[in-house]
Amino acid sequence: MGAEAKREWRRMMTVLVPLGLYTPADRAVLAGYCESWSLYIEAMQALRRFGTVVKSPNGMPMASPYWTQARQAEESMRAAAREFGLTPSSRTRVSAGAPAAEDAFEELLRGSR
Q1: Which of 10, 23, 39, 112 has its CA 20 to 30 A from that of 47?
Q2: How confident is the model at residue 109 (pLDDT cuts 50, 70, 90)?
Q3: 111 CB contacts (<8 Å, ≥6 apart)?
Q4: What is the rounded distance in angstroms from the CA atom of residue 30 to the CA atom of residue 89?
């Protein structure tokens, strides 16, 4: 995981664990969410820098490929967020359990292992 994805992992753990919405079995889904977040941030920064319309190789204006990347990353984040009940419509379908103990992946991200 890159730095931005790790920051989002830590932020999401402060949200999910107290609500009992994270267990070690959820690691892959949460990691996918965090990586998608990182890609989304990267794409949005590129859009701000280069704009939403760029020149194609033949000089014609075209939609920035970063726009497609941002939309795909956003959809991936939204799908993972639904799994954790983090969208308004999905909250009614998710039940919380007891808060999970910290798993080995979290220790690895902190550098404790």
Answers
A1: 10
A2: confident
A3: none
A4: 19
Residue with structure tokens 């359990």?
A: 97
Burial 13-41 (b: 16+ CB within 10 A, else e): beebbeeebbeeebeeebbbbbbbbbbbb
Write out pLDDT tens, residues 73-93.
999 999 998 888 888 788 777
Q: How far apart are CA 73 and CA 36, in angstroms?
A: 5
| pLDDT single digits (tens) 27-65 | 999 999 999 999 999 999 999 999 999 999 999 999 999
What the block records as the tokens of 69 is 């990347």
